[in-house]
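Worked example

This section walks through a single chain of length 303. The input is the sequence exactly as stored; nothing has been trimmed or padded.
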Amino acid sequence: MRHLLVTASVLTAAITFAAPAAAQSVAPSVQTRVDRLEKEMKAVQRKVFPGGTPIEPDITRAPTPVIAPGSPAATPVSDLIARVDALEGQLATLTGQAEQNSFKIKQLEDAFAKYKAETDAKLTPADAAPPAMGATQGGSSAASPVKSTPAATPAASAARKAAVAAIELPDTGDAPMDAYTYGYRLWDAKFYPEAQTQLKATLDKFGTSPLASRTANLLGRAYLDDGKPALASVAFYENYQKRPKGDRAADSLTYLGEALIQLKKPADACKVYSELEQMYGATMSATLRGMMTKGRERAKCAA
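Given that input, the structure is written out below as tokens.
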């Protein structure tokens, strides 16, 4: 009997010390998983919030499961393991969503960059830079025109360079008139890119002179004749807007209607013709009126 009591005491002691030992063996495993989760969560935060302040995760403890009668009670360690399992599942889901969002954002950025590049290429005029205007003798800031050179493109042949060089550069002592006349000669010889360059330089230098209206209007015509109606419409409209009493204001409105028709904007062209009639109808030349009449017919303007 005494032997049985001793044996029972030994078994009781063994069971009492076995549970803490098992918990201690599981605890390092759980701690390792928690450490790993913390590192992974920080990595996800750095990816989702680069350079910003990460949002602390709102982790809600899972509800305590109902234990059926007769089932063994859950220990703190088993409860912790269940929570870690749930957290690992949530982290995996969050990581997958972050990767999908990053991929979609990259696709959007690439698409926008491509669209912007294509749009910039369409809107940027392929004109050469305006030529430098040299100082006149005596140190005056008023400059005489400098010979334009053909646009530096592979198509610019030696023959074209020679032809442009043959255009006479006027030298009457009237710098604004000489600059305009040289641009006109380039345009009249159908050297449109060179004419555009010269006329833009003339406007930059002599934009307040009496010849500015004539120069700006001719710049618009050089664009229009060069197959650039969008740039032409800008030049014509700016000339009319800035110099409504200039000697080529009515011309610019008339050619603006033509540019808008080429841009397939007949309704806007009709508005321009209406304003042309209202502003300059009494003083309009027969040539401009004939252009306006034909333009209204092409645009199908209301009578």
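What to look for: The chain has a mean pLDDT of 75.
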